[in-house]
Amino acid sequence: MDDVVHLRMCERYRRESEAHKERKVLLLVRCEDGLASFAMDRIEYVEYRGGALTIYMPGGGQVSSEALGKSFSETVEDVFFDARFVRPHESFVVNMNHVAGVGDHVFEMQSGARVPISAANYPAAGECFIRYMVKANGAKVVS
Hints:
The chain is an alpha+beta fold. It is built from four helices and ten strands; from the N terminus they run ααβββββαβββββα.
């Protein structure tokens, strides 16, 4: 499955996404110090490197997981499947609720972080951002 498929907001997960809005969904991560839990809505973005995840939160906090027992693609499908999470690059997942805008091949995060967008996904990234903001937040588009 290529990155463009991950970037699209998949209709098949819409019902699950709506259900997740109704309750606080937590992510449990095995890390060096034991287990850490995160509210999914507090995750800004996730980076995959060396077989492990680094989870970034607004305000600069971050936690690294132990090595995953499966591929990043499988983890994305199992954990980051709802509409607020998109995969703009083979090694990143972003929470669209924390995206401030789209720059030159990057998502500009509200924290100031810059998450890369692959060349294959770049043409769809701006449209994805607009669609998500209009649908999730009622944003108005001014041309």
